[in-house]
Specification:
The chain is 0% helix and 53% strand. The chain contains no helices and 24 strands.
């Protein structure tokens, strides 16, 4: 059975205990969004926080988001996002007016444009868990970490790429029509391609 869950919680923060949505999930608030237990969503997920300095914390290590996850923090000042999808593939889209931290045991990809105005950190901790961001707009410094032959691919459109450092245990491919620079050391065990 497919049954969706939709919540607009006004200005009140949303705290998610463990649960399963056999369908799509959409949660909106001008407060923060956090969780105290693992969340399983078989369809798409959307989390939107529109307040000032309100964060989205979905970092429970047992989460299972089966479809594309849309993340929006669109307040006038920083709203940070952190997310973990256990060993499951994770596809992200949305606009984050702040920093993004992603830890995943499966692949990480984007769908449509993933815009992050602050810093971005992407970590995979499983073999073959590639990071493929083919239509992103990452405006702040980017930190990378992939495990045991996992590649990193980024097309940042017209946005300059700033690499804060990290380790890619595999190949790295970075494309942009802007500049490419670094603020920290980058280790790549496989081939590297930088195109500007």
């Amino acid at each position: 059975a497919t049954s969706n869950f939709t919540l607009d919680n006004g200005s009140q923060a949303v705290i998610l205990a463990a649960g399963t949505v056999n369908g799509a999930s959409s949660i909106t608030t001008s407060g923060a969004i956090s969780q105290t237990g693992a969340l399983v969503v078989t369809g798409t997920s959307s989390f939107s926080s529109t307040g000032t300095d309100t964060n989205i914390d979905l970092s429970n290590a047992a989460n299972n988001f089966g479809g594309t996850v849309t993340l929006n923090t669109t307040g006038t000042t920083s709203g940070d996002v952190s997310i973990d999808n256990d060993t499951n593939a994770l596809t992200l889209t949305g606009t984050i007016n702040g920093a993004l931290t992603v830890l995943n045991g499966g692949t990480i990809a984007d769908s449509a444009t993933l815009r992050v105005t602050g810093t971005s950190s992407f970590t995979t901790d499983a073999t073959g868990a590639n990071i493929t961001l083919s239509s992103s707009d990452l405006e702040g410094a980017i930190t990378l970490s992939t495990f045991a032959t996992s590649n990193f691919t980024l097309d940042n459109g017209t946005q300059a790429v700033i690499l804060a450092g990290g380790t890619v245990n595999g190949a790295a491919s970075i494309t942009t029509s802007g500049a490419i620079s670094q603020t920290g050391a980058l280790v790549v065990t496989g081939t590297s391609s930088f195109s500007s």
